[in-house]
């Protein structure tokens, strides 16, 4: 059964963050807050954890379109081909924020994603997500926790999330109520911004 951990977004407790990191490094799955909906994440370098998430989501790992959660743009070159100045300016303007940017992947992608031509990059404006990724020293792979309820789509209450997910993951972080609108997805893989999904992030900045 999962552990339910309260972390305050104003001042994430390093001791609690360390606990989350230990679980991630052992291949555990964590549900955590972002600046949009709550996410389900694992260490990008842990194959077993990636396979676990794929099983939960009922998809093949090589078909998964998950986001890479980064602390800032400094890790970008680890997974993304060199991008031009206009593209970088767009990223700089929008991040951290409620956007997922689809960018061309490079040859350093983890082996599970080698066949992918593009990757989704997220830099959430959320201190808990940022603290986790910084302490882990590499991105976490993330997918949103959709609800079967068509009207709700996303559960915002961490206690209800815990009730539903406690037997599937290792930690559920209570970082306060989440949002029920997913990130705006912008495809920048061909240079010009293309809106794939309109979500929380306004599109008039592009």
TrEMBL record:
Q: Name one GO molecular function term.
A: double-stranded RNA binding
Under InterPro entries, the record lists: DHBP_synth_RibB-like_a/b_dom, Sua5-like_dom, SUA5_domain
Return the protein name: tRNA threonylcarbamoyl adenosine modification protein, Sua5/YciO/YrdC/YwlC family
> What Pfam families has UniProt attached to this entry?
Sua5_yciO_yrdC (PF01300)
Its organism's taxonomic lineage begins at: Bacteria, Pseudomonadati, Bacteroidota, Flavobacteriia, Flavobacteriales
Q: Which domain of life is it from?
A: Bacteria
Gene3D superfamilies documented for this protein = DHBP synthase (3.90.870.10)
**What region holds the YrdC-like domain?**
14-201
Q: Which PROSITE patterns match?
A: YRDC
């Amino acid at each position: 059964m999962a552990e339910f951990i309260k972390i305050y977004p104003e001042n994430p407790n390093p001791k609690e963050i360390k606990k989350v990191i230990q679980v991630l490094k052992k291949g555990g799955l964590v549900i955590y807050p972002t600046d949009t909906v709550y996410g389900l994440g694992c260490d990008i370098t842990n194959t077993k954890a990636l396979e676990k998430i794929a099983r939960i989501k009922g998809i093949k790992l090589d078909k998964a379109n998950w986001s890479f959660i980064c602390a800032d743009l400094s890790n970008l070159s680890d997974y993304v081909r060199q991008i031009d100045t206009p593209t970088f300016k767009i990223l700089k303007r929008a991040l951290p924020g409620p956007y997922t940017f689809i960018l061309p992947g490079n040859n350093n992608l983890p082996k599970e994603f080698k066949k992918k031509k593009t990757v989704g990059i997220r830099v959430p404006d959320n201190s808990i997500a940022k603290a986790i990724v910084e302490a882990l020293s590499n991105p976490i792979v993330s997918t949103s926790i959709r609800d079967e309820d068509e009207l709700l789509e996303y559960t915002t209450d961490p206690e209800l999330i815990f009730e539903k997910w406690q037997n599937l993951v290792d930690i559920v972080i209570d970082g306060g109520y989440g949002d029920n609108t997913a990130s705006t997805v912008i495809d920048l893989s061909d240079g010009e911004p293309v809106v794939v999904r309109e979500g929380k992030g306004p599109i008039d900045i592009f």
